[in-house]
Every structure is written in structure tokens, then in C-alpha cells.
Amino acid sequence: MSEMGDELVARQLREAIGRFVRATRARADQLPDPHAQTLGLLHRDGPMSVAELAAGRGIRHQSVRVTVLELEQQGWVTRRDDLDDRRKVVIDISPAGRRVWSSELERRTSSIAEAMQQELSDDERKALGILPGLLDRLSRHLSGP
After folding, report:
1. Contact at 8 Å (CB) between 76 and 39?
2. Which of 5, 97, 109, 118 could make an SS bond with 76 (beta carbons 3.0 to 4.6 A apart)?
3. Backbone φ, ψ for residue 94 (5° rounding)
4. pLDDT tens for residues 32-59?
5. Which of 41-50, 79-88, 110-119 has the lowest mean pLDDT?
């Protein structure tokens, strides 16, 4: 494929993945978006400070503070002193938060599986089966060495 063809496919892929993620979340998510994003980040990357959460989500520090307080009130996150720097406080997902996040992911997965069964032929579902591996390879390349 030509370089221009690669650019077109890359743009289409980026747009399609964005639509897919938004549609999946809109259909399956029960948590408010800020809660889901924060729990997801903590689940994937582990404990972090409010400043690190804000940077990871690309939003203001104050917005994360509000979200963390709401999650803390639900019992889904905890605060503790940083083991490396006692002046710093880190936020961690609690066991209850992990259960809530796992349920959210299960709803997303079920919604996708249902859509696949209703909308795609057997051959299309089989072809779609190679996509996760391809996207993982591209992700590793984009993440660097």
C-alpha cells in the first residue's frame, strides 16, 4: 500500500476506533465518565497522586480532586501516604472499586459481543478476531522501546 493509502487507512482507523469506543461506553457504561476514567486509570496504572491522575486524564487538578472525593465517598478509592515520599498522598482503587470497574468492563464486553453476533457474519467475526493482535502490535510500536 502506498504511503498516502496508509495515511487514509490510519485516519479511518483512528476515527472508527473513536466512534466504537464512544458507542460502547454510551451503551454499556453505568458510571459517570469522570468516575470511569479515573477508576480505569488507577486499575491500569496503579496508585498515583491527584496531580498524576490529572495529567493522565488531561484535565485540571481541581476536577480530579472532586472526582476522587466522590469516588472516596462511594468507597471505590482510598488515600494513603506515598511509601517513597511521606509528604505525598496517593490514590488507589479499593477492592470495592475493582469490583465496580470489573462490572463496567463486563458490560462493555457483553455489549460488544452482542453487537458482533447481531451485526456480523461468521466470516466477519473471524476476520475481526485478528484485529486485537494487530492493534497490540501497533500500540507497542507507538509506545516506543
Report:
1. yes
2. 97
3. -90, 170
4. 999 999 999 999 999 999 999 999 999 9
5. 79-88
Chain centroid to Cα 40, Å, comes to 5
Q: Which residues pair with 91 in a beta bridge?
A: 48, 79
Taking only the tens place, the pLDDT of each residue in 60-70 is 999 999 999 99
C-alpha–C-alpha distance, residues 117 and 93, integer Å? 33
Q: How far apart are CA 116 and CA 122, in angstroms?
A: 9
Beta bridge partners of 90: 80
- Give CA–CA dist 63/50, Å, rounded: 10
pTM above 0.85, yes or no: no
- Buried b or exposed e, range 102-125, using 16+ CB within 10 angstroms: eebbebbeebbeeeeeeeeeeeee
The owner of cell 469490583 is 99
Q: Are 61 and 51 in contact (CB under 8 A)?
A: yes
Q: For residue 78, which of 96, 61, 60, 91 has the smallest C-alpha distance?
A: 91
The DSSP letter of residue 48 is: B
The answer to whether 72 and 87 are in contact (CB under 8 A) is: no
Does domain 3-143 fall under CATH 1.10.10.10? My reply is: yes
